Amino acid sequence: MIETEGLTRHFQAGEETVRALTDVTVSVAPGEFVAAMGPSGSGKSTFLNLIGCLDRPTRGRYRLMGEEVEALSADRLAELRSRRIGFVFQSFNLLQRADALANVELPLVYRGLRRGARRDRAAMALAAVGLGDRLRHRPSQLSGGQQQRVAIARAIVGSPDLLLADEPTGALDTRTGLSIVSIVQVLNRAGMGVLMVTHDAEVARFATRVLRFRDGRLVGDERQEAADAAAMLAALPPQDQAA
Ligand code: ADP
Ligand code: MG
To answer: Does Lipid metabolism appear among the keywords (predicted)?
Structure first.
């Protein structure tokens, strides 16, 4: 699903060259749950943005779902991105004036789906993340964990093959973060590929594979037995369950 070869992204900042990512060669198969780890500034977000085609490499090759990204027209790339990839960020990035349903519906507007069909699919996506009873709430009326669940619903409403998440639990307390990872794990088990950036080893335990970055280089690539997030959540004392 993802194949990179010598993927490199350097930024020119005045006289200085910032080597954000250098020579990353990696392949990810459909349906994997990959955690990208590393300290702050190690190139994780730069890697994720390249994988999501939000940025272009300085050099190196990238094939996404069998397509050479560099060779795609802007239109074809935009279509590939909107149909096959879902994005989730640390800061939720929801429209504050719109309710949950309208936020989740938004990606479908660009697909020319009729209003009724959009609403139905958005409601289903919200139900899938446990927010079937919060369709009309605005972000300000929801907790941080609930807002991130709306963001996940928005990311998955178009049934992408790949979910990209940059520190999705970064703004949440440990328990709420666990509930978010649990949702991601359920989606992955249903077949969705996941690439999740995190600097938190506790969160990376739920992935089936861990990539480690340091100073813009890929320095580790290990498969692991994933811990079960739902089981860990269920084992928490009831009064401490995430909102
Ligand atoms: P991480 O997500 O692991 O914290 P990043 O990928 O965001 O790291 O950044 C890697 C390095 O590249 C950092 O030194 C960062 O300051 C630099 N960097 C990232 N984006 C830019 C940019 N647009 N311009 C200049 N430098 C950047
Ligand atoms: Mg980052």
So the answer is: no
Ligand 1 pocket residue status of 51, Cβ below 6 Å: no
Query: Residues 149, 129: contact at Cβ < 8 Å?
Result: yes
Q: Spell out the residues 6+ positions from residue 174 whose beta carbon is closer than 8 angstroms to its own.
A: 202
- What pLDDT is recorded for position 238? 75
Region for residue 215 given its phi and psi (left: phi exceeds 0; alpha: psi -120 to 50; beta: otherwise): left
Q: Would you state the pLDDT for residue 23? A: 98
If one residue of 7, 8, 11 were mutated to test the ligand 1 pocket, choosing by the most ligand atoms within 8 A of its CB, it would be 11
Residue 240: band (very low, low, confident or very high) from pLDDT cuts 50, 70, 90 = low
d(CA 176, CA 170): 10
**DSSP per residue, 23-36:** EEEEEE-TT-EEEE
Helix axes 100-109, 115-128, angle to 10 degrees: 120
The pair phi, psi for residue 146, each rounded to 5°, is -70, -40
pLDDT at position 236: 86
Residue identifier of the C-alpha nearest atom 23 of ligand 1? 11
Which residues, in sequence order, are CB contacts of 172 under 8 Å at separation 6+?
A: 144, 145, 148, 180
